[in-house]
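REQUEST FORM: STRUCTURE PREDICTION
Request ID: SP-0412
Submitted by: Lab K.M.
Chain count: 1
Length (residues): 313
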Amino acid sequence: MTVNECAEWLRARDNFLIITHRRPDGDTIGSAAALAGALRAAGKMAHALRNGETTARYLPLIEPFHAPDSFEPGHIIAVDTASREMFPGAASGIERVDLSIDHHPSNTLYAEETLCDPSRASCGELVFDVISRLGEVSRDMAEALYIAVSTDTGCFSYDNTNAGAFLAASRLAELGADTAGINKRFFRSRSRSRVAIEGFIYSGLEFLFGGKAAVAVITNEMMKRSGADEDDIENIAALPVSIEGVLAGVTIREMKGGGCKVSVRSSPGLSSNEICARFGGGGHAAAAGFTSDEAPESLKPKIAAVLKELFER
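STATUS: Completed
RESULT:
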């Protein structure tokens, strides 16, 4: 599906429910908020599924669009969600997805219709193109989309940042997005708990293969001792790969219910997506992830073995 076809598809339908992915980030939340706002401005009924994992950082952005319990959607849209495995718990009963708007190369084409462009740095850029064809893009929509673009590019510092991302940011600024305020709130402000958890991470970093890889483990005990919550560890996976000489940064997060979540960030020439695909996950070349039922200590040597294979190619 092309951008124009997607816009026409939306224009011809009504009563939309928009799904965000598990552990929602700025891209999925910003995309959902902007899309819901644009559909409402076009005279459509549009709501977002309540995602119980939304953190306090993003809740004010999406809360005005939360679907009432009585809402019965006619069409279901997923944004920035590559597969059904990434659906939040609230979407567990949803069998049919009518449209997926995404930028992940690992998208499994689970929806009836798909608009996917892996060349985009963020899903927000695709949503921007679509809603621009539906009508005027308001300041609120522009700010939601700037959050989407900026968070998925690490404030335009990640390897996925390209000319399209800068162009989208420029256009969103022209539409009134408070870029300075958003940048400060999301990228230049840290809580004391964030500083504390970073201290634990840096003191426990393990370097492998002559410093080409760095592995960080975040345990439940570390979270408790630092007082950190989900908001405090936003984008924490970027820390290991930010160290000089590190080509692959692996962050293993112990989960409260058991098992762990693994995030991989890598430099050009080494694919995070390829690494995570070995464990049933995926994402982008520079950023990907997967979940595992194993404990961090048993998982580390398995990840190291994959890294060793890729480094020795």
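NOTES: The mean pLDDT is 95.
Reviewed by: T.R.
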